Amino acid sequence: NAGVMQNPRHLVRRRGQEARLRCSPMKGHSHVYWYRQLPEEGLKFMVYLQKENIIDESGMPKERFSAEFPKEGPSILRIQQVVRGDSAAYFCASSPRQESPSSLGRAFFGQGTRLTVV
Amino acid sequence: RKEVEQDPGPFNVPEGATVAFNCTYSNSASQSFFWYRQDCRKEPKLLMSVYSSGNEDGRFTAQLNRASQYISLLIRDSKLSDSATYLCVVNAGNNRKLIWGLGTSLAVNP
User: Fold this and answer.
1) Is A81 a residue whose pLDDT tops 50?
2) A84 phi/psi in degrees, rounded to 5
3) For A95-115, what is each residue's pLDDT tens digit?
4) How many angstroms separate the CA atoms of A113 and A11, rounded?
């Protein structure tokens, strides 16, 4: 049972380019969360998705960032026209279908994508 | 006031020591509480959930104080392998969004 798979593990982009980060949740998980961790800072929630639905994107910057979780395939976090300040570790987590509050927080994380903007 | 606050440390302790971390949260409606562990440049991993009555998992004990709005993590008989950053995580309400503390850094020394 593979865990949460993120790729690429490391991504280098020049300023102005686009970055695409992919996340395949654990088998049977239909909830995906994206987090950003800036150097020396805590994890910051970005977006929560279910298949074909964005449930909560309150942590997403208003411009240049978008996320999707299509019916087939991985979830994608897309950053357009990257800037140096986008350099960070981006973690994806997935959790089971259960809705009970006790299951919340038992998310399984991928190993992250470290984005470096040069 | 931050939604979840932790002492960043670092806590430097010798092997075998007992160490405790606290974490305060601001939203009294918070429902679920967790401790995660994050090793340097790795992903966070769930250490344990925190239940109202307190709970123990081997050398680790977690407690919740709703009145004072804090949770704690106690590590007994520290091992070198316990060196990591410990993240306090709170779910506030029904929106499934987790609020993360910045973490407390622990270094266990031989």
Assistant:
1) yes
2) -55, -35
3) 876 544 445 567 789 999 999
4) 7
Contacts of A110 in chain B (CB under 8 A): 43
Q: Are strands B30-38 and B44-50 parallel, antiparallel or unpaired?
A: antiparallel
Task: Sort residue A59 into left (φ over 0), alpha (ψ -120 to 50) or beta.
Answer: alpha
Ramachandran quadrant class, A101 (left: phi over 0; alpha: psi -120 to 50; beta: rest): alpha
Residues 6+ apart with CB under 8 A from B67: none
Inter-chain contact A45–B98, Cβ cutoff 8 Å?
yes
Q: Is B34 on the interface with A (CB under 8 A)?
A: yes
Enumerate the β-bridge partners of residue A112.
Answer: none
Task: Inspect the interface and report whether the beta carbons of A101 and B32 lie closer than 8 Å.
Answer: yes
Comparing CB atoms, the residue among B33, B44, B49 nearest residue A43 is B44
pLDDT, position A103: 52
Q: Which residue has the tokens 């020049």?
A: A14
